[in-house]
Every structure is written in structure tokens, then in C-alpha cells.
Amino acid sequence: PEVASGSAPRPAAAPKPLPAASPQTASELKKDDSSGGGGGDEEVALSENVCEADDAQGVEDSKAHWGVKQSFQSYITGSIAQGKWELADVEHSDGEYHFSGANGAVSPDGKIGTVAYKGALHFTGHNGILDLLIEDPEIQWEGNEGHLIAVVVSNTIEGEPIDYGRTSVGRLEFEELDAGSGKASGRARLFLSESGSQAFAEFYEPGLELDPVSFEADLGGKPNCTDVQGKATSGGAKGELGGKAADKAAELRKDFDPSQTTGAENDSDSTFTVHDAKPAGLAGFADPNTPLVVTAAFLIAGGAMTVFVLRHPNS
């Protein structure tokens, strides 16, 4: 697949999200003194029946558009994280990532549907401590509600890779949804799920509004869902930070004042290139890539985004 990134173009290659260690699965995530956690599934299945319906239409071609979170894009390539993103079979323009797909099913009245896409987003920063892979997203809906589902692999705040499997990234609330005459399209607000929050090291709280998701699709023929499409998710660890990681996070939250930060929006230029300059560091910390400082950076970016949502609920 074609791979692009926030830096210079790279040769075609599959993304290598976590070369340093083999990721645990969500069910293997256990409490210990460093990372904490616990098993549990957040199952979602809104569109399974439509894939088997004789009167449903298949998906011949579709595009989906999602920016994840604009401030997160800036944070990744900014002076704190000094990271980048790599794209496999995904394009980036106008602040959004663009996915293509040709699998799915939509009911005759358009009220139930699922559209699957191929491609991967791979975010890295803080010399690999921050490592997030979002792959093969799927949009499921029933009525005006739905879920954005994807395969997710992410590091904990201690740098431990966790494989969440196919899980709900967030809940969709459609503001526009239209299907008919061989076409389907929609635009939805997206709110971070519990498993999605864990993929962001639990410093973006569940319910945080991410960038909206939109799609358009050409419909025709019989349903052509993938083997897992429309079905319940297989991942979604349910747990909390424990031990040393929880103590560090609690200590940082205690003195954290979001009003004293400007967020990550100012940490990147408009071209989203990888910064070569070394970070200036945070007062009192010698190494800006240690888990403690990474935690502080997440809190600054996440806190600023939370304040933005609270102060501007209609934005």
C-alpha cells in the first residue's frame, strides 16, 4: 500500500506500528504495579442483519472523511511530541484523513447500514512512547445513531503496547443521513468511547467530541459485507490506570489548570511536517520523553480540548 506521512514521502510499505514489543490483547491486559487495567468488552452491533437482508443494497464505492482531532494532529507534529503520522492507503488534505472502501450494505429505507474502509493511520511521538494505530474503519448506523469502529493498537502511558482488536472508537450522532437512488451519504458528530479513550492513554475522557465523520457511497447489487462487518466488536478493554501510572497521573491532575494552557493547536505549522528541533522541555524534568512528561503533555493537550468543548458546545 502507498504510505504517506507528515514528513517526506516514504516508499510503499505496510505500517509497522509497534516493532519494539509484541502487543498484548485487551483480554490479556492485567493489573500490575506499572500499567494497571482489566479485561472487559464493549460490544457494538447495529448493522449485522442488514448484511444478510435480500432487499439491502451493496456498496460499490465509498469515501469517508475524518480529522481525528485537529489539535491532536498539531500536537503530534509539534514541539512537545516531536512525532509524525504515517498513512497506508489513506490520503490527507484539508485537515482530514480520507478513506476508500467498497464493502457494506444499506437497507432500502437507509435507516440501517454499514460501510467498511481500508487503510491505516499510525501516529507516533515522544520517541515511540506515544504509538497509536487505527486501521480499517467501519461506519455502522441505525436511525440517527451509530459507531465508528476500527482495529486499534496503542501504547499505554508506560509505553506498553495493547491490542484492542476491532473496537468502537466512538459513538456517532448523525446530523445528516440520506440514502436513495443508488446513493448514500451522511455527516455525524463523534464522541469518544471508553475503549477509544483507553487508546489515547485515558487522558482524553470518554464522551469528548472528536472531529466529525462524513461519508458518501455509491450503492448497487447485493450486500457485500466483509466477514466481520456489521457484527459486534471483538475488542475494548475496560480498565483503569493502576499502580505507579495512576499515581503519576493523579499527581499531575491535582495541579493541572487547563485555563493556563493554550493547547496543542499552536505547536505545529500548517504543513504538518516533522519538527527537527529538540523540545525545550518542561520545568523540573530532564527528559521530555519520560512517561511522566508524556503524561503531562497529554494532559495539557487533552485538557485544552476539553475546555474548548465545554465553552463552545455548539462548535
TrEMBL record:
Residues 1-11 have a biased composition (Low complexity). Residues 63-215 form the Htaa domain. The chain crosses the membrane at residues 292-310. The keyword Cytoplasm does not apply. Residues 1-47 are annotated as: Disordered. Keywords: Membrane, Transmembrane, Transmembrane helix. InterPro entries: Htaa (IPR007331). It comes from the Bacteria. This is Htaa domain-containing protein. It comes from Corynebacterium otitidis ATCC 51513. The lineage of its organism: Bacteria, Bacillati, Actinomycetota, Actinomycetes, Mycobacteriales.
